[in-house]
Amino acid sequence: MRRWILIGMLSCLIAMVVVIIGIGEVMTGPASTAVESLSSDFPVEAVQIPLNAGSSVHGWLARGARGGGVVLLAHSIRSNRLEMLSRARFLNKQGYGVLLIDLQAHGETPGKRITFGVRESEDVEVAVAFLRKTFPYERIAAIGVSLGAAAIVLAKHSLRLDAVVLESLHPTIEEAIENRLRLHLGEYGPALLPLVLTQLSFYLDVPIDQLDPITRIGDLNAPLLLIAGSNDEHTKVPETERLFAAARQPKDIWIVPGAGHFNMHSYAGREYEDHISDFLDRHLH
User: Quick check: pTM over 0.90?
Assistant: First the structure.
């Protein structure tokens, strides 16, 4: 009898280890996919921005009115540039040039692992440098959602942007994972947090604290608009408020009533466009 109990316990332990390893693989595994071409009603230029030897950041560029400013658009995790297409259309109609990119290990930009903003920040840096070279007399802004927002904040070198919009951004990777474990596995889910964090550190080969946007948001030397949903369980309102407190002035915050952790433009529509237009008009025109 004791032997079968020991075998059962060992089997459960092995199963738990396999699950934890699987979680790490799923969380960091690439989300590469072909990106469909656009219809003629929104003409864009396909661009490949050199990143390093044999690797480029893939994206679309739509030019705007001269002197209107340009906006970099960075998508959320396990998505690609198509997520930002509705924003690009509305901004381009307002006269802004727009650059939509696939972050590394997403869409058509190569990469072995999703790194929660650390290596994705390199894509943002070269994209901003590309815009500065292509449009030397234009003011530049960036809009990032979740992973895209983290990539903007975690950039190792100053981006020297004229305006930044961050949507659905987590303050720390620990809180981001804990919230998701609770959502998907219930109240006992956070018990797995130490194991998941260990897996992430192993897969990414970076210290966990390098994945925390709240430690870097104060380095953003640009006007900031921070956006979050009032019903977001992935990044809760108090977490967003801590990010806001850590950021430099000038800064604004918009908590979208009823919104969760999803596409704010799709959810809030015209109200979203009014907030973004007002913010960018003040800082880019």
Answer: yes
